[in-house]
Write a structure and sequence with these properties.
single chain; 11 helices; two-stranded antiparallel sheet; mainly alpha; globular; 2 domains; about 300 residues; about 70% helix
């Protein structure tokens, strides 16, 4: 059995022969390496030059900051977030229908169901990833985590907006008009009635649940086989969960024109997770959702 040592950055126990900390990505033996005397005739780079090289940005160089979760936990996170959401929604609908079927059609019902679903999922998913919570919370103690995550959130906003504008123009040219999809329209209706609850549920809790489900769970699971498969699979699924299959005609076509922006968002969030870790993709997702909700609330009040 490998001896355990404490990481000098996050303080968690790791294997002594590890090159980097699996939780925070900190080099384990870098100080020892710096103290090694150079061999005769060996060219040694200046420490400042080495540090500059380490800090240079390479979009295809990943920092191995994802949690080393077991395949079992990845499957459970995905099934709870994906299948569990549908089951909880179905169960609540059956109960409400038995009591008062007309209530199913109200915005109040839609809001309460969404709030209940995400609150339950949030609690269950946190229980599942209990061992990963400490390194995750330690990540949030680092100011750079917040700056990088929020910055990536605005990158997500800009790119998604550009993609959405392009396909809205295409929808207008083909269909004669364009609009948001039913998923976004439903959220807009709910947040107009429950603004504060929408900020908490759709702006914070929802993104956390989705990142645990689709990044820590599904993306990490697929990446065991192939990184490209993981990006494509998660992007497509992330787009389809925001797609309304019950529509027909022009409304269905409108759903397809709104799909690319969600797929692009899925790719970007997976990239943020893959390169910077779960804390980064969570913050980027929260930033994107909070921005959309706050802008929507301000627009509604002004109109």
């Amino acid at each position: 059995m490998n001896e355990k040592i404490k990481c000098k950055k996050c303080g968690l126990l790791i294997d002594e022969d590890s090159n980097i900390c699996p939780y925070c990505g900190f080099p384990v033996h870098h100080e020892d390496e710096d103290k090694t005397e150079p061999l005769k005739g060996e060219v040694v780079e200046h420490p400042h030059h080495q540090e500059t090289q380490k800090r240079s940005f390479n979009p295809f160089q990943f920092e191995s900051r994802e949690f080393k979760t077991s395949i079992y936990k990845q499957i459970v996170c995905f099934l709870i977030g994906f299948v569990g959401l549908q089951l909880i929604s179905l169960l609540i609908s059956v109960i409400i229908k038995a009591v008062n079927p007309y209530y199913l059609l109200t915005i109040t019902y839609q809001g309460m169901v969404n709030f209940a679903i995400y609150s339950i999922l949030f609690g269950v998913l946190l229980l599942v990833i209990n061992k990963e919570l400490i390194p995750l919370l330690n990540d949030f103690k680092i100011p750079k985590t917040w700056l990088n995550g929020i910055g990536n959130g605005f990158i997500l906003i800009v790119v998604s907006t550009i993609v959405s504008m392009i396909f809205n123009l295409m929808a207008t040219a083909i269909l004669g008009s364009s609009s948001v999809n039913n998923n976004e329209a439903g959220i807009n209706s709910i947040q107009s009635v429950y603004p504060f609850a929408s900020i908490i549920i759709f702006g914070i809790i929802g993104p956390i649940c989705e990142e645990i489900t689709y990044r820590l769970g599904f993306f990490s699971l697929l990446k065991r086989a192939n990184r490209v498969v993981a990006y494509v699979g998660v992007a497509i699924l992330f787009g389809l969960i925001h797609f309304d299959y019950s529509t027909t005609g022009a409304a269905l076509a409108n759903e397809f024109f709104n799909l690319p922006s969600y797929i692009v968002a899925g790719v970007l969030l997976s990239y943020f997770y893959d390169k910077y870790g779960l804390s980064n993709s969570i913050l980027a997702h929260i930033t994107n959702n909070l921005f959309a909700i706050i802008v929507g609330l301000i627009t509604t009040r002004l109109i």
